[in-house]
Specification:
Layout: E1 4-8, E2 18-23, H1 32-41, H2 43-50, E3 61-64, E4 72-77, H3 88-105, E5 110-113, H4 125-142, E6 148-153, H5 156-170, H6 173-177
Parallel strand pairs: 1-6, 2-4, 2-5, 5-6
Antiparallel strand pairs: 3-4
Helix pairs in contact: 3-4, 4-5
The chain binds ligand AR6.
């Protein structure tokens, strides 16, 4: 197994050292994966989030995982999709990078990501997949920590988009066809 993989599942059940929460700038919870993570972690997570006073889009903040299996949660507000010409790609890439940087700073060796911004925030799945893969693979190329990064997709369809994108850009598919 390499350092990177794509799977289908419920990120609240993840056994990674840290999971990423696709949050909003308030960091005070919401629907989607954010709601699921807060429900699974219990009320102490919200209590710690209240002490953080929010987080700008594209940045990340770390909390404990409380009742989750994951020891930590990396909270990052993704960009709201506004058609693609409002810095969405740079902000989305920055979410992935910020989480990985924070993981590295804290010696966290395994991180599971959801597909940030692709639900309520409306980022088209294929475009988000290409941005997220590039950001993750660039970081892994340049850093030894974390040792393992996974994207946990909620649906098989989302995983298929990511796998196709990964195979095209990073698994030699392109070179094989030349
Ligand atoms: N495990 C893995 N992935 C999941 C899970 C889960 N349990 N639940 C949903 N997803 P979203 P966003 C996927 O809407 O677009 C919240 O209200 C989902 O299928 O959770 O970044 C926040 O508070 C989708 O692919 O996050 C913000 O206000 C992906 O997670 C806003 O929504 C992200 O969908 C953030 O919107």
């Amino acid at each position: 197994m390499g350092r990177f993989s794509i799977l289908v599942g419920d990120i609240t059940q993840s056994d990674a050292e840290a999971i990423v929460n696709a949050a909003n700038e308030s960091l005070l919870g919401g629907s989607g994966v954010d709601g699921a993570i807060h429900r699974a972690a219990g009320p102490e997570l919200l209590a710690e989030c209240r002490t953080l006073h929010g987080c700008p889009t594209g940045q990340a903040k770390l909390t404990k995982g409380y009742q989750l299996k994951a020891r930590y949660v990396l909270h990052t507000p993704g960009p709201v999709w506004q058609g693609g010409e409002h810095d969405e790609a740079a902000l989305l890439a920055s979410c992935y990078r910020s989480c990985l940087q924070l993981a590295e700073e804290n010696g966290i060796q395994s991180v599971d990501f959801p597909c940030i911004s692709t639900g309520v925030f409306g980022y088209p799945a294929a475009q988000a997949a290409s941005v997220s893969l590039r950001a993750i693979m660039d970081f892994l190329r340049d850093h030894d920590t974390p040792q393992q990064v996974r994207v946990v997709c909620h649906t098989e369809e989302a995983a298929k988009v990511l796998r196709q994108m990964y195979n095209f850009w990073f698994a030699g598919t392109k070179a094989d066809r030349l």
